Amino acid sequence: MSDILHQILRTIETTRAAGKLPICVFDLDGTLLITRARTLGILADFAARTGRGALADAVASIGVDEQKYSVLDPLQSRIDLSATEKAAIMGWWRGHFFTDAWCAKDPVFAGGPEFVRACHERGALIYYLTGRHIHGMEAGTTQSLVAHGFPMFGGRAMLQLKPNFEMEDEPYKEDAMRMIASLGGTVVATFENEPANAHIFADAFPSATHFLVGNTHRPDAPQPRAEILHIDDFVL
Question: Which of 10, 34, 130, 161 has the smallest set of CB atoms within 10 Å of its CB?
Fold first, then answer.
């Protein structure tokens, strides 16, 4: 899909040349950043801290590509877990997954930093729209973006997080569409991993090109509409 990504870069240039502000919207989790690795790290940490050797071996055998949306499914295919053990693992995961310390460690999708920089260098405003929340994930998120070389402090870069952990993703992103529209620019492209959110983007900005990235999404996600394009990475 590198051809369509190159087309996005050309559209940014022509939009800028026409005197308009091109905008590219990027989700983070499962789109630019690989959260599956965070889950595996947290599971490995739990196994190590509780001295569960068999659990540690099972976690170590799970590849990042195998760890999809469900926290426990790949693990349960390797080791028997009691209800008490499942509850303990999930409690540990919930207590650590949504934190600065762990989200700062997320690796990136191949080509992600380079593509986002290319968009920025051609004049696009980079709008990071994430379901992560303030008061718990903003520091780690900023550290991660900077460490990986994503545009942050050179102007034309914005990071929006949820005002609280409890807010649902879809209404939050629907509200964000109005904020993005208020910038007065032209949305050239949006990038998401959740089909429902990609549909929100497509409805709000029908003239833009909309992408689904990777294959990590909610198990009850709707079927992506025909106009939503799929990519596995950002390699140009």
Answer: 10
Distance CA 179, CA 222 (A): 25
* Tokens at 130, concatenated: 């994430």
Contact in structure between 47 and 234 (CB atoms under 8 Å)? no
Q: Which residues constitute the domain of residue 193?
A: 2-34+108-231
Helix (H) or strand (E) holding 171: helix 169-181
Is the Cα dihedral 234, 208, 25, 183 positive or negative? positive
Which pLDDT does position 170 carry in this prediction? 83
**DSSP β-bridge partners for residue 209:** 189
What pTM did the predictor assign? 0.92
- Is residue 129 within 8 A of residue 183, CB to CB? The reply is no
Per-residue pLDDT reduced to its tens digit, 23-59? 999 999 999 999 989 999 999 999 999 888 899 999 9
Q: Is 231 helix (H, G, I), strand (E, B) or coil?
A: strand
In the chain, the number of structural domains is 2
CB 16 within 8 A of CB 178: no
If you ran DSSP here, which 8-state letter would residue 194 be given?
-
Q: For residues 153 and 227, state if they share a domain.
A: yes
CB 21 within 8 A of CB 185: yes
Biggest distance spanned by C-alpha atoms of the chain: 62
Supply the CATH number for residue 168's domain. 3.40.50.1000
Distance CA 108, CA 111 (A): 8
Does a structural domain hold residue 236?
A: no
At 157, list the tokens: 């870069």
Residue that the structure tokens 């919930």 belong to: 94
